Amino acid sequence: YVAAKHGIAGLTKTVALEAATFGITVNAICPGYVWTPLVEKQVPETMAARGLTREQVINDVLLHAQSTKQFVTAEEVAGLAVFLA
């Protein structure tokens, strides 16, 4: 998963640089944690595995590296995709 995300980021940057002189822009949508049923399911599992509270899992594990300290919504990702299209 991590390797795939880095691959997409690298591919996007490379193609953007190569296509820039032709007036072509290249974008990738790379949100942090998106609040989905999968992430919601991971919260209690992580609580049990690490002995943490719900708030600790959300704030100290899932949102630790997210600058806004908020989950991204699926609607926000979809809105950005529509805007870029």
Secondary-structure topology with pairs:
Elements: H1 2-19, H2 37-50, H3 54-62, H4 74-84
Helix pairs in contact: 2-3
Describe the structure.
- The protein has about 80 residues and is mainly α.
- The chain has 2 domains: about 30 residues, no CATH class; about 55 residues, no CATH class.
- Helices cover about 60% and strands about 0% of the residues.
- The chain contains 4 helices and no strands.
- Helix 2 packs across helix 3.
- The longest helix is centred in the first third of the chain and has 18 residues.
- The radius of gyration is 17 Å and the shape is elongated.
- It starts with a helix and ends with a helix.
- The mean pLDDT is about 95.
The number of domains: 2
User: Helical segment tally?
Assistant: 4
Count of extended strands: 0
Our Rg estimate from Cα atoms comes to: 17 Å
How many angstroms does the end-to-end distance come to? 25 Å
Beta-strand proportion: under 5%
Mean pLDDT across the residues is: 94
pLDDT below 50 for ≥5 consecutive residues: which ranges? Answer: none
SS class: mainly alpha
Question: What's the shape?
Answer: elongated
Share of helical residues: 55-70%
Name a few traits of the molecule.
single chain, 85 residues, mainly alpha, 2 domains, 61% helix, 0% strand
Quick synopsis:
By secondary structure, the protein is mostly helical.
